[in-house]
Design brief:
By secondary structure, this protein is of the alpha/beta class. Helices cover 32% and strands 11% of the residues.
């Protein structure tokens, strides 16, 4: 006679802990619940939104050396740049070849663009695609952005007469401050999440949409956490939705029963957790099906031709070797979700029915204390070596991935019911911990502060530069004292300009960016 078999007792909490984390990502869910707060006041009604728009935040993790991303090309200014950066870092001045700084043809001074700043610039030679998009008017560099509590001059910095953001030059602190835009407050939300709050409650611009407005391909982040968390960040991988493939039969029945009970709970946290988890399960299953349909939506049941815009490897120009690109894989999935999001949910259309989407993607490797170029440790110029190395690979990857997204949006074109091409409705932009020190440490560069960033898209007033380029002098008017630039543009200004284009009404900007009123120019005009 066989002995009776009894399942061990597992509490509801224990069951959810065992079945959910591996399948859906416990970090995202726990972060969502930890940051959840109840709205204490109604948000003002937004104008009715009928078009589609997407923001794609590209986080360059580690601190991008933007001093080598954008290079001064007036001969006297380049000579000063080269002397301080030393042969270990200094990129050769523009000479018309692809193995030197790639000269930018600027619209500064033309009607509708910023005035001339009496400088000329070039992109790093690894960034041919973005240089071409700049010249075509689709890319705008924004100079010397950083975390600021208040506007600050060199005199104020030295005298400490204006509060500095805490923990300057610290990776974790500056990453958080960039993503929250609140350096002088205890953080509980990010500016992407607060934008999603404004556009979701009380009136949801994505009403009827099948996924959250906020999507992350880089795990949990504070950028997409809202005060009300009205649109909780939804995590997806480069290969697709994460579903409960290992939870089926009796286990799935039990999970559904637990969730039904908890959604009716009088405990607000229990209720919120259950609702978010149940919604995440539904989203994953819907998305998995739509991605499968999309894979066969090209001619003759093949993949769409625009998939080919996203190669599996990247090669830095001028002799670099090919390498696999996680950023390119993330960007391809972003493009796939935009293509689905911009279509309706009508039968046969196979879309997600979204009006607004916010994406967060991330790439590491930018903490280039060493191995920044192949000429590290050298005191003799070797231009063939200095234009290669880890930073050249990173910038080539960034250039090719941003270009791929832009071209794919053009391939997809005008969506039914939309006034213009997706290329004009999708804007990608870079953020990073900080820039890096202007002087070389012999092998690379160290943690800095203010840095330059890039915005790309059809709506961007590209082909011109925005903001004030720093004076490239150690102990100069823009330097703390060691070649770390004091920002002349705040994160708030950069982010608020993007938020305005995205549809946040002017009377709601300070709800999203409480410190914005401290800065004289809330809209930088690059989009």
């Amino acid at each position: 006679m066989k002995p009776d078999f009894h399942l061990p007792y597992i509490s509801r909490r224990g069951f959810l802990r065992r079945t959910v984390p591996a399948a859906l990502g416990a970090t995202v869910l726990s972060n969502t619940i930890r940051e959840l707060r109840i709205l204490t006041s109604a948000m003002a009604q937004q104008p009715q939104i009928t078009d589609y728009k997407a923001l794609v935040c590209i986080f360059l993790n580690g601190g991008n050396d933007s001093n080598n991303m954008i290079i001064p090309t007036i001969p006297s200014e380049w000579e000063n740049y080269a002397a301080i950066r030393t042969p270990a870092l200094a990129i050769p001045n523009a000479d018309g070849s692809g193995a030197a700084a790639l000269a930018l043809t600027s619209k500064n001074g033309q009607p509708g663009f910023p005035g001339p700043d009496n400088h000329t610039y070039g992109f790093h030679p690894a960034m041919k695609e973005l240089r071409d998009l700049f010249d075509l008017g689709y890319v705008a560099p924004v100079f010397n952005i950083g975390t600021l509590s208040f506007p600050m001059t060199k005199v104020q910095y030295s005298a400490r007469s204006v509060p500095r953001p805490p923990q300057l030059f610290s990776h974790s602190d500056q990453q958080t401050q960039w993503q929250t835009s609140l350096p002088d407050q205890t953080y509980s939300s990010g500016w992407g999440g607060r934008i999603a709050d404004i556009l979701t409650a009380p009136n949801n611009v994505n009403d009827g949409g099948l996924v959250s407005m906020a999507v992350t391909l880089a795990g949990s982040n504070i950028f997409e956490v809202g005060n009300a968390n009205a649109s909780p960040q939804y995590a997806i991988t480069n290969t697709g939705a994460v579903t409960l493939s290992s939870v089926s039969g009796a286990r799935r029945t039990a999970l559904d029963s637990f969730l039904a009970t908890d959604k009716a709970s009088t405990n607000l946290q229990t209720k919120a957790y259950a609702e978010i988890l149940d919604h995440s399960i539904d989203q994953a299953e819907i998305l998995k099906n739509l991605l499968t349909i999309q894979d066969a939506s090209g001619s003759g049941g093949t993949a769409p031709t625009w998939y080919s815009r996203f190669p599996t490897t990247v090669t830095a120009p001028n002799g670099g070797t090919a390498f696999g690109s996680g950023l390119m894989s993330q960007m391809k999935m972003v493009a796939r979700l935009i293509e689905l999001g911009s279509k309706s949910t009508a039968l046969g259309v196979n879309g997600l029915g979204m009006k607004r989407q916010i994406f967060f993607i991330q790439v590491g490797g930018y903490d280039t204390h060493s191995n920044q170029t192949n000429n590290q440790g050298q005191t003799t110029e070797d231009y063939a070596r200095v234009i290669l190395g880890s930073h050249a690979n990173l910038l080539a990857e960034l250039s090719q991935a941003m270009n791929a997204l832009h071209l794919a949006m053009g391939d997809i074109g005008i969506r039914p019911g939309q006034p213009t091409s997706l290329q004009n409705q999708v804007t990608s932009f870079t953020v990073s911990d900080f820039s890096r020190t202007f002087p070389c440490n012999g092998f690379g560069s160290d943690h800095g502060w203010g840095g330059h960033h890039l915005v790309c898209g059809g709506a961007v007033k590209g082909g011109a530069t925005y903001g004030k380029f720093p004076t490239l002098a150690v102990n100069g008017p823009d330097d703390t004292d060691t070649g770390r630039w004091i920002p002349t543009t705040s994160v708030d200004q950069y982010a608020a300009t993007l938020a305005s284009w995205f549809g946040v009404d002017s009377n709601q900007l300070e709800t999203v960016f409480p410190n914005l009123g401290r800065f004289s120019t809330p809209n930088l005009g690059f989009i």
